[in-house]
Amino acid sequence: MNVTPDQRARELFEATYGYAPLHVESAPGRVNLIGEHTDYNGGFVLPMALPQRTAAALAINQSRQVRSVSEQLPRAVASALDAPSGLRITFQDYLRAACLALAEKGQAVPGVDIAISSDVPIGSGLSSSAALVVATLRALRSALGLGYTDLGLAKIAHRAEHSFVGVPVGVMDPMACSLAVPNSALLLNTRSLEFENVAFPPELELAVIDSGQRHEHASGEYRARRAECEEAAAALGVSLLCELGEDAMERVDVAALSPKLRARVLHVLSENGRVAAAVDALRRADGERLGRLLAASHASLRDDFQVSTPEIDALVETATAVVGCLGARITGGGFGGSIVLLTRKGKAADVAREALEKSALRLAHLEPRVVVPLSSAESQA
Ligand code: GLA
Q1: Which residue ranges have their beta carbon within 6 Å of ligand 1?
Q2: Total domains, the chain
Q3: Which of 36, 94, 134, 173 to mutate to test the pocket of ligand 1 (most atoms within 8 A of CB)?
C-alpha cells in the first residue's frame, strides 16, 4: 500500500538523524485552472490544490545550519543558514530561503534538521517548489510557535522564493499551496491579495496530464515574458498591465507598441477577463462554457504569449478531440509541464487515458502520465 508523504518524511528523518522529528507538516501542489501569466501583471488567477502533497519533517537544532535530506537526495547535506547559493538552484536553497525569509521578519531560526518527502511531480508546472517552501514554513511555524496566518505564511513563502532563491515568480503558487482547499478553486486578486473559494461543481471533473517535458529552460523565457510585460506597461503609462481593464485594447494607444508587445498585452488582458468568465461558468456549473474558456486560454498562450511547445500543443489538441473532453489547455509557467482538461463527472480518467494513448507515439520520448485523477491504488494512500 502507498504511504503518505508525511509518514515517509517522518521515517526518512528518523533513519537519517537517529531521533524522531518534532513537527511534520505538508502542503499540496497546485494546478491552475485559468489565469496564466496574469499574477505578475496584477490580475486574477484561479488555481486549485492537487491531491499530491509535499511533507516536511523537522526539528530545531542550535547549529546555525540546515541539515537536509530528501527522497531524491537521500544523503543528508549540511549547509550554513546564510551560505550563498551555487550556480544551480538546489532544493536546499529553498529550505534555507524559507529560514532566511522568516529571519528577515525578525524571527531568528537557530538551525534545523529537516527531511522532505513529496508526491508532487517536479518540473511539471504543478508548483513543487512552492509546496516545498510552504510545507517547510508550516513546520517552522509549529516548531517556533509562530502566529502567522496561512495568508501571512504565503507572503513569506513568496518572498523566500522570489528574493532569497532569486526566481522571479509571481504570488499565485505560494498563495495556492497555502490557501487552496479541496473541491474549490481559489479566486485570487494578485494586486490586493483578496481571495475567495469558488466551489468546483460536482457535475464536472478535471484531469491533469504531465507531458514529461521538463520546463528546465523556463526561467530565462519566464524572465523575458515578465520583462516584456513591464516594458509594455511602462509604454502604456501603468505600473501593472491589468490596471488597464479588459477593453483597453480598443481604448489605449496600443499602436505605440511593437507587434510582439501588443500580442503579450492582448494575452494578459484577455486572460484576465477569462478568469471572471470562468468563475461565472463554475457558479452555473456550465461545463461547455468553461471548456471553451480553457481552449481560448490555450490558444492565447500558444499564439500571443508564446509559452507553449509543439509537444504540449499536440497533447492539448489530442485531448480536445477525445469524446467527452469539454476543453483543455497548458497549465503553469509553460515551455513544457502539464495540461489540464475538463470533463463531466466520472469521465476524467477515461478521457485522460485515451488522450495519452492517442498521443503516445508523438510523446514517446517524454513518458507522459496522468497526475489527476489519482488511480484507485494511489488514492488509498
Ligand atoms: C509560474 C509562476 C507563477 C505564474 C505562472 C504563470 O508557475 O510561478 O507565479 O506566473 O508561472 O501563470
Answers
A1: 36-37, 39-40, 169-170, 172-173, 332-333
A2: 2
A3: 173
Check: CB of residue 43 under 8 Å from CB of residue 190: yes
**Residue found by looking up cell 502533497 in the block:** 53
pLDDT tens-digit profile of 110-120? 999 999 999 99
Atom of ligand 1 nearest to the CA of 332: 7
pLDDT in tens, 241-254: 999 987 777 777 77
| Per-position b or e across 101-122, b if 16+ CB within 10 A of its CB | bbeeeeeebebbbbbbbbbbbe
Q: Do residues 107 and 228 share a domain?
A: no
The model's pTM: 0.96
Q: The C-alpha cell of 252 is what? A: 489605449
CB 185 within 8 A of CB 33: yes
What domain range is 216 assigned to? Answer: 204-379
What percent of the chain has pLDDT above 70? Answer: 98
| Single residue among 152, 175, 199 that ends a domain in this structure | 199
Active site residues: 173
Residues 45-98: pLDDT tens digits? 999 999 999 999 999 999 999 999 999 888 888 999 888 777 788 899 999 999
